[in-house]
Write a structure and sequence with these properties.
Elements: H1 2-10, H2 40-50, H3 57-67, H4 72-92, H5 98-122, E1 131-136, H6 144-155, E2 159-161, H7 168-177, E3 182-186, H8 190-206, E4 213-217, H9 219-223, E5 235-236, H10 240-252
Parallel strand pairs: 1-2, 1-3, 3-4, 4-5
Helix pairs in contact: 1-4, 1-5, 2-3, 2-4, 4-5, 4-6, 5-6, 7-8
């Protein structure tokens, strides 16, 4: 449901989509505590803290979890995506407003950014030579989905980069400065899809690596993959796991 949240935030007046799996879907934690996994009722309580008007309540809850030994991997790769899906479900059920969803997404993004350094440190021993630049579509407002996707690639041993900001100039500058193996772009709406062929062409031309692989996914691809038939991308994928698997397979065949 991460993709549903982002699609709503990108365009509050667009029609609601069905509750389908998306690019950034992750497995639900087990319904009872096993290792680090939290029970459903505990996740519900933390989700309510995310929606609380009390400043810092959600971030404090995450800090408490870490203090009590819940792993950073579980928080970043399972808990936060699960909470995002629950926000999306409440949106679909009309129990959350656009403003509440936007605030929730912003809080989740802020927490991921704060956990970023700690998470990356725990993954250092896995780091390989493959590098990827991950970005949402130029000038898009929210980056929750690409942040979660980035963490999956980091967890899989990739060197992950994100542009300084998501302007086309900033993305192109990053591609010019480092010879990345791949570029991933998240697409949220039809307006972005119309511009995507030119964006891909421009960024391929700017890339220091002339054989860079382009990965496309995101909310709109999840909803209507048939719309992407004309897009000249090397890989399209729905989930983080699928993205990593397909990209590594393509690179292994070079």
């Amino acid at each position: 449901m991460v993709e549903e949240i982002e699609r709503k935030v990108e365009g509050a007046n667009k029609p609601k989509a069905s509750n389908e799996e998306g690019w950034l879907e992750t497995p639900m934690p087990t319904p009872s505590k096993q290792g680090n996994a939290l029970a459903d009722e505990e996740i519900d309580r933390i989700t309510q803290l995310l929606l609380s008007t009390e400043d810092g309540a959600f971030e404090l809850a995450i800090t408490v979890l870490k203090t009590h030994g819940v792993s950073i991997n579980y928080i970043v790769l399972d808990l936060i995506p699960t909470i995002a899906r629950r926000l999306g479900k409440q949106w679909e059920d009309d129990t959350l407003s656009f403003a509440e969803v936007s605030i929730g997404v912003n809080k989740l993004e802020r927490v991921i950014h704060k956990l970023d350094y700690l998470f990356q440190v725990t993954q250092l021993e896995k780091r390989g030579n493959h590098s990827i630049l991950i970005t949402n579509f130029p000038e898009s407002q929210h980056s929750l989905g690409t942040l979660i996707l980035s963490n999956y690639f980091i967890h899989s041993g990739w060197r992950v980069y994100r542009p300084e900001n998501n302007s086309l100039k900033s993305i192109a500058k990053e591609l010019e400065s480092i010879s990345h193996n791949a570029l991933a772009i998240s697409i949220s709406c039809d307006e972005q899809l119309e511009l995507l062929p030119n964006i891909i062409s421009t960024l391929r031309g700017k890339s220091k690596n002339p054989k860079i692989k382009v990965l496309i996914g995101g909310p709109l691809y999840n909803k209507a993959p048939e719309k992407f038939a004309h897009i000249e991308a090397d890989i399209t994928a729905f989930t983080p796991e699928e993205s990593v698997e397909r990209l590594e397979l393509v690179l292994s065949q070079i």
